[in-house]
Amino acid sequence: MDMYIVLAITAFMMVMFIINKVPFGVTTMTCCVLLAATGVVDVETAFSGFANKIVILIAPMLALSQAITKTSLVDYISKFLDRLKGKSGMGLILAFYAVGIVMAQFIPTTACIAILIVFLNTLSHTGNVTAKRIMLPLLGVMVAWKFRTPIGLGATTFAQLNAMAGDMITDPAYQIKMLDPFIFAIIPAVCLTIYCIFCWKLMPKDDTAVDESKLKKRTAADLLPKNKQIIVYVVFIAVMAIMLLNTWTGNLMYIAPAAGVLVLIFTGCMGVPETVKHMTADMTWMLAGVLTVADALSASGAGDLIGNGLLSVLGNVDQPFIIALIFSAVTVVMTTFISNMGTQSVLIPIAASVAMAGHWDPRGLILIIGTANYFAIAFPSGSGEAAVAYASAGYNPAKVLRFTLPYCIIAIVTCAISATLLYPMY
Questions:
Q1: Rounded mean pLDDT of 207-230?
Q2: What are the sequence ranges of the domains in the chain?
């Protein structure tokens, strides 16, 4: 019974996201209340999303990002980006994509997008290239390359995938090697990057009415004194360094933004009311709620239901490409509702057991799941970074579908092609 209640609450969340009549955070908090009120989870679990380490990282990051807007750095960046934009805006778009790809190798994508929002928001609200038009394509490029290179956070991807397969794969030749995630991702990542480079114009134009002259005057009036601007720069650089060096700093990465915000409060660079305002923004509510609903779906057995359905479908299919295509599609769809880790935890053991029972090479199927689970960008529930992007830009999932649907289709097909060509099952 619990599973059907969770599925109904999830359906409600999806519909409310599309209708977009109330802030996303209000929708997800309603879902958390419903989960607790129906007894599916206890009260502590219903609101445990606020204690999730991703939320602990993002909430103070929003406040820290706001502090940067009170320095002269934003004016310099804004002028530089205007020059870089040129006539077509392609140079600016490529620059953001390149920075995003590099950052995604070292910093969790949720934090990356929160950082880049600061600089995206320095763009003009008019013209073709606006923050609202390129934020989701930027996310699409970042997740295409996320954790793929054998450096930074991607250096352990292969070990994580092998661990999820468990003891079912005993032949060393069938285990994932360090370079396999990168080699596998080349085809989908390149295709998705090309798509985002040329198809960002499918995104709706920014419809926010802004008097930019007033905006510039207000920004100039709100600048911090020079000595406090220096403190903000030092804190921001220190937080970024701890994130970039997360291989050595470990869990300090998740508390570094909070520590930085505390320094800014104690030094008078930020006031407590404005800090609380930004840390409890709709984006924080939404992220915490989405994580809770995703966990409830996983715990309710919805993932196992999908997995069993997948097994019954595969029983009648013997074409390698079709099998790869099914796994790709199921991974992307499943990740839209269930957490990335939950999707992998359910599907990788299924892929390994199906492959070993058929005497197939399981690497292609495992790599499909380990890669395609990042590509669910069609709804804010697809991942923490998707939640941040949708909440920040105020996207209506239905209105951006003409960009996100082709993206997801390309991701599904190219993952199947990569598995078939580079890691054939037999």
A1: 63
A2: 157-171+295-422
Backbone angles phi, psi at 47, to 5 degrees: -115, 20
Tokens of 212: 């930019």
The Cα 63–Cα 114 span in angstroms is: 10
Residue 75's contacts (CB-CB under 8 Å, 6 or more residues apart) are 219
Contact 228, 267 (CB under 8 A): yes
What string of DSSP letters covers 267-318? TTSS-HHHHHHHHTSHHHHHHHHHHHHHHHHHHHTHHHHHHHHHHHHHTT--
Between CA 151 and CA 213 the distance in angstroms is: 44
- Evaluate whether 279 touches 59 at the Cβ level (below 8 Å): yes
Model confidence over 27-68: pLDDT tens digits?
999 999 999 999 999 999 999 989 888 888 888 988 888 888
pTM over 0.70: yes
Average model confidence (pLDDT) across the chain: 86
CA angle at residue 373 from 109 to 174, to 5 degrees?
A: 115
Q: How far apart are CA 1 and CA 94, in angstroms?
A: 49
Q: What is the C-alpha to C-alpha distance for residues 218 and 199, in angstroms, rounded to an integer? A: 34
